[in-house]
Amino acid sequence: MNHTFGTAAAQLVPLADVNENKVTPGLLGFVIFALIGLALWWLMKNMAKQFKKIDFEEEPEASEASSTDTADTADTADTTGSASAKVGGGAAKGD
């Protein structure tokens, strides 16, 4: 087993050679990447805090059908009322 590991390690050594003509991110690249990661962590933590502040209560599904009927009736009444208000308002301005 050691012989196999030694052979594999020997094959990887040329890949680890430092090439002076190759550009690498270096310390500055790591610091910038770490700062971006830290900012992302802070933003996600803050977002979770903001979501906890939201007070949202969802209506039960059973009352959803009855509220739809009520909403349809209210929309029809609102549309009729708006149309008569527009006609009445337009006639008053024209006089």
Helix content: over 70%
CA-based gyration radius:
35 Å
Helix and strand pattern:
HHH
Question: How big a fraction of the residues is strand?
Answer: under 5%
Q: Report low-confidence residues grouped into runs of 5 or more.
A: none
Quick check: average pLDDT? 73
Structure explained in plain terms:
The protein is mainly α. The chain is built from three helices and no strands. The radius of gyration is 35 Å and the shape is elongated. The mean pLDDT is 73.
Chain-wise SSE layout:
Blueprint: H1 2-12, H2 26-53, H3 61-94
Task: Please outline what is shown here.
The protein is an all-alpha fold and 95 residues long. The protein contains 3 helices and no strands.
List key phrases describing it.
95 residues; mainly alpha
